[in-house]
Amino acid sequence: MARLKGGILGGISGKISDVIGYIRYGKAFVKMKSLKPLKKRTQSQLAAQQKMKVVNAFVNSMTAFVRIGFTLEAANKTHSANAAAKSYQLLNAVTGVYPSHVIDFAEALLCKGDMEPPVNASVAALGNGIQFNWDVSRQTEVYHNQSRAMLLVHAPGLGKSFYTLSGARIMEKSDFMELPVNFKNQLLHAYIAFYADDQKKISNSVYLGSINYQ
Fold it and tell me: Which residues, 6+ apart, have CB-to-CB distance to 81 below 8 Å?
């Protein structure tokens, strides 16, 4: 507690927060309290911090996509679908050594479920967008009238993703996704998954590789 010497116009004697007041030779002085230096972070702490930063940037570019993709995985758990998606990438899809951690796009999983995923899937640049093609396993054909494809491309150079949550019916076996102009001349990483209309079934996402979108 501080005390005012000589009333409201006088000097301060004592401490107020980080300010210390004192009287010396009849004059009032104030100074800042000495702060303890922050403990230097260890190499492992810095690495963990950077990994989380890399994962956050990746997942936050596709929030709505992974919210659907990890909803069933997060069901009956204390964390959200978004948190579940980040946890998976953190454990499985970060590569490199500090300070050069990056996403391993081939290991990233944007949807997680037990529905049979697309097979023989591929992508190709076509005009002003990306053409997706896929086949369907016999087990998945039973959902042909109730399921659609979810499509996504991620552009690391932009730090952005573009996606559709309700693409073509899975038995159509192809879909075209028109892309924004700023995705031109970017290296894109493509993903596809199947999602049932009743939201009770979803497949794991499938990484389709990278494509130079010119």
Answer: 66, 67, 68, 69, 70, 71, 73, 74
pLDDT tens digit string along 44-70?
A: 999 999 999 999 999 999 999 999 999
Where do the domains of the chain lie? Answer: 11-40, 43-213
Structure tokens at 133: 């093609």
Give the dihedral sign, CA 92/95/99/102.
Answer: negative
Number of residues that this document lists for the chain: 214
Reported in sequence order, the residue ranges of the chain that DSSP labels E, i.e. its strands, are 3-5, 11-16, 19-24, 27-32, 94-95, 102-103, 119-126, 129-135, 147-155, 160-164, 174-178, 186-196, 206-213
Give, for all 214 residues of the chain, the pLDDT tens digit: 445 455 444 555 566 666 676 667 666 666 666 666 668 889 899 999 999 999 999 999 999 999 999 999 999 888 999 999 999 999 999 999 999 999 999 999 999 999 999 999 999 999 999 999 999 998 877 777 799 999 999 999 999 999 999 999 999 999 999 999 999 999 999 999 999 999 899 999 999 999 999 9
- Statement: the pTM of the whole predicted model exceeds 0.90: no
Beta carbons of 195 and 147 less than 8 angstroms apart = yes
- Sequence-distant (≥ 6) Cβ neighbours of residue 114 within 8 angstroms: 201, 203
Tell me the two tokens of residue 184: 């031109």
With beta carbons less than 8 A apart as the criterion, state whether 125 and 133 touch. Answer: no
**Is the domain defined by 43-213 classed in CATH 2.60.40.10?**
yes
